[in-house]
Amino acid sequence: MTVSFFSEVAHHPTALWVAISPHTLSHSMIEKAGRFSLAVLTQKQAHLAELCGTTSGRETDKCARLDLHASPSGFLFLAGALASTGCVVRHSEPIGDHTIFVADIIEAELDSATLDQRQLLLSDLQD
Amino acid sequence: MRFPGRTIWDTRVQSVCGILSANGAAGIEIFVSASFAQVSLSPPLVIVNPNRMHSIEPAIALTGRFAINVMPVSSRRTVARLMKMRRREPNKSQVAGLSIEEDEHLIPFVEGALRVVFCEVERNIPSGDRRLYIARVLASRVNSTFAGQRPLLFSDVLGTQSASYSRKLIRRILIVSGAFDLAKKLRNRLRPAPPPDIARTTYEQAGATEEEIARINQYGIVDHSRKLKPPAAPAIVKKRIGVCVVGTGWGGVHCRYLRMASPAARIFVCGRNPERTARLARSVGAEAMFTDLRTAVEDERVQALTLALPHDIHRQAAETGAAAGKHVLVEKPIATNLIDADAMIDTARTAGTILMVAEDMHFRPSVREAVACVSRGDVGEPLYLLVHAGGLRRPQGWAADKDRMGGGVLIDIGVHYIRGLRLLMGEPDRVLASRAMQVNTKMLGEDSVHLLFASRSGWEATMLLTWSSPRGNLPDIVLAGDQGALHLWPGKRYLDYYPAAPRFLPNMISYVRPYWLQEKLIRPQMQRIRITQPDKDGTGYLGEMQEFLTAISEDRPPASRGEDGRRDLEIVLRCYESLDRGTWSDIPTL
């Protein structure tokens, strides 16, 4: 799924947080597996954000339409992303209408082809 | 080419760059953050994660309120400057030139922000070296001045987005052509990358345990020890002032710099020896000469005195001048004891005249630039100051008399470097003094001394002051921080900056093999950045004369006041106390 509510938690231990609505399929999958991948999209990947943000995984297999590959630890990383991170959930709790997952980053991958590109912003999708 | 991320920066989770602002115990605190985001739509909640070693964290904890200032892309330079600033620098907003306002919730915010989100903390989650603050959005404000601009991104400030167009183009060509990947492979062959263990590599580069955070924070989150600042720029003399130089020895130097500072100044000379006084008066084109101080101060053409006299008669001369309504510039040290210094300050205060101490270190261009370098964060956290000053000298006359001088090399030149220490590092808290054997038996005061200063703020300073050995071609002041070092040279209009991060050429040479060839090629100067100041004079004498004359014409306190000179003397006297006792001496808190 497409998320825009995420950020860094700490440098040590290396961690990030992501907030996900409890009504989504991703929420139940992360809760069950205790691990997830987060790919930071580039400005040129707005179509992927729309693809993953407008349909539910309950209806279509979104993964089949993405260029994914497995990392050495078995995380699914997205080709052409600014960065892909493999995270293990350390803590979760409901906050407002979302659930926050605090997760340690244990693996990450970058692509040299995206080094001169910037992150996709929510405002890019609204333009 | 895909390659593993090794730190949290590699993963590029940080995106929109903003400034957190909050009211702290010591005033407004600001902090550049690229780690904030919305966490809930209803109710609207946000999360920020300030570092616990930065002053913004206790400020948010104290008031429970803060603002997220999302900056426009046009503010890249300001944010970059703020980001580079050292962690413990006080008054960051002033140093960075940011205008801060307060809203109706009494939350400080940045006036030039694209959007400001005012927040109130609901709870926090401790997490490693950061603390997650979950906060409710109280209000939001959009600045229409920046309509059409996108928010500043972290990569705009630190990444490739900040590079010039030509550099971006070259980088793009390198990436598309595959040269970048080739270089990376070659680099990994010459210097293998560390294992892709993100937790470990991040810890090594930026992490800190609870114990380490506590140890670092014992020196305070903000460094308030620097209470003295040099003037931002040399003063500009606009009025014609009548100045009488008292003393014909060092007084000659006063005359020369007075003339340079104000070619139209009316110079008078006063000395006990009529022949010497007349000779000096002729050589500097003085309007008149006096052989008695009382006659000089009674002359209506004389508005101010500069005193270049033996240290023990500073008080008498300064009081005579102030009693007659004359402004006084007294050579350093202000006096030989605190009783005299206090009396001089009181007399000037009562008379409503200026008492300035001629401390050239306060106006030395390289010191002014070094202070700016420290504030900007060029050297990171200042840790050590090394001073090696003096050189072979055989004092004669009153300068060889301990009672008239007030001591030896310590009170004569040490007082300069104590002022330099206060400007560059801050106020010292204690001192340990020792000395080698006396070589010059013709003087009663010490001809060398070794000082170690320590501060509660976490820095130390070492001073070797000597008249008994040559110095060689060395910088007289070296300031070392965790991000770089500064070398200051006596009398020079420049200073040398050695950043900790390798510059382009040394970095390239580090890949040269075999190692013997690398050692042949590398030069320490390759890492040097020479910062030159536009001032006409590198000593600071010109600046001090300009300041004295300008302070008189503008009727304002001068930059180097009598009180500042008194403090220098107080520290010198504590050094002597330590030298006598052979133990650490505490220096009173300013």
Question: Overview of this structure, please?
Answer:
The complex is a heterodimer of chains A (127) and B (590). Chain A has helices at 25-33, 46-54, 122-126; strands at 6-10, 15-20, 35-40, 68-70, 76-78, 83-95, 98-111. By secondary structure, chain A is of the alpha+beta class. Chain A has a single domain, classed as Pnp Oxidase, Chain A. Chain A has a five-stranded antiparallel β-sheet with strand order 1-2-7-6-3, with helices on one face. Chain A has a two-stranded antiparallel sheet with strand order 4-5. In chain A, strand 1 (6-10) and strand 2 form a beta hairpin. Chain A is globular. The mean pLDDT of chain A is 90. Chain B has 590 residues and is of the alpha+beta class. Among the domains of chain B are: 8-158, Electron Transport, Fmn-binding Protein, Chain A (Pnp Oxidase, Chain A); 363-540 and 569-586, 2-Layer Sandwich (Dihydrodipicolinate Reductase, domain 2). Chain B contains 21 helices and 25 strands. Chain B has a nine-stranded mixed β-sheet with strand order 24-23-22-21-17-20-19-18-25. In chain B, a hairpin with a 5-residue loop joins strand 22 (484-488) and strand 23 (494-499). In chain B, helix 10 (251-261) packs across helix 20 and helix 13 (314-323) runs parallel beside helix 14. The termini of chain B are far apart. In chain B, 47% of the residues are buried. Strand 7 (98-111) of chain A pairs antiparallel with strand 1 (2-4) of chain B, so a sheet runs across the interface.
